[in-house]
Amino acid sequence: MATNGTELDGVMAAIAELSTGDISSPTSRLQVIQKCQSIIESLQDPRMVAMETLTSVVMYPCIAVLNRLDIFKRLTIGPLTATELAQQTEADRWLIVRLMRAATAWGLIKEIGPETYQATPASFVLAAPPCAAGLRVGEKTHKILDALPAYLKETNYQNPGSAHNGLFQYAFGTDKESFDFFSSDKEHVQDFNTFMTIQRTQGQQWTEQFNIASRILDGVTIDPAVPLVVDIAGGVGQDLTLVKKTLPATITTTGQLVLEDLPRAIDGVPADLHDPDFTYLRHDMFTPQPVNGARIYMVKHVLHNWPDNDALKVLQNIAAAMTPGYSKLWILDSVVPDTGAEKKIVALDIAMLGFHGALERNREQWTTLLDAAGLRIIDLPVLPDGYGLIEAELAV
Ligand SMILES: C[S@@+](CC[C@H](N)C(=O)[O-])C[C@H]1O[C@@H](n2cnc3c(N)ncnc32)[C@H](O)[C@@H]1O
Question: For the whole model, what pTM was predicted?
């Protein structure tokens, strides 16, 4: 905390600098946010920072309850009082007041008068199906990270590295891998698939930010005899739909775009995402890739679910299907910077540790992993928040 004259002058100078800050692009906006955060850190009493850290555990369960009561959704229609919310939800009015007070303090709701609440922009995002589903997923999986201290103590603080024998299995008392464990829970699978349709980049969609149409079309003659894009473990197909939107209709004809995932995902593709031009393949990515010679094989938010030994098998299966000089692999995942990783990335990294004994990888870890699978990186653009496209081809 800045206390002496020189330190306080430094803080005041940083505040003055903000007034000339550029907020026209996602990059510059992020830089301004980072400056604001650093100003807040300079002004905060460290005892209060410690108190906030100690009490941070209460946030998630409270938000999950508000989600169960559809509070965010109800507020998207207009402001409501605690009494109105209690009537609509049949929950206790005083309980509503306490939870809404908390949500207001966290900036997720706005109090516009005593016991009167209005949606904030964040409430609208929380009310939408991907976040609402994600909050329900979190209710069932929260106990994984609760078990982290006991698990690491028992395992002598070794870095978890197995999807089959780690914190997840310890927390749930199972020997099943996490996707497998939940596969029979239909509500969870549906919620998980809906959660995965969430947009994870700031501003434009990833397809725009990485200019993917030119990455597919430029520099080659497209071979219409083989599929154009195969989305491996593509969930319910939201990304393939985005890819299709960026390409001319003449080349995304029937059979050119292939969605692969386990049967439980393919069977759960909702009607609004179903595309009669897509090929839907129920495929286990740990078995040989059935589509040979496609222009693009993409794995988005998939390899971060798997420790290196499993991720390598997935990559080897893809590499075996690729055509040298034509096929490209796209990995969409975090690329952890050497310093100053964003909160979102570090949270995902620890979540992957807990759920799958897996990790978010840095540039060096991606390079080593791809190298082991006989692939080499040809481009690696990274968005300001650390979200990256790792574009690779066969190393031969
Ligand atoms: C984190 S989700 C990512 C989904 C999608 N690519 C996206 O970006 O939203 C991981 C996906 O891996 C799929 N998956 C898990 N194990 C798999 C396997 N053995 N073979 C194929 N897909 C698998 C899951 O069904 C799920 O759709």
Answer: 0.91
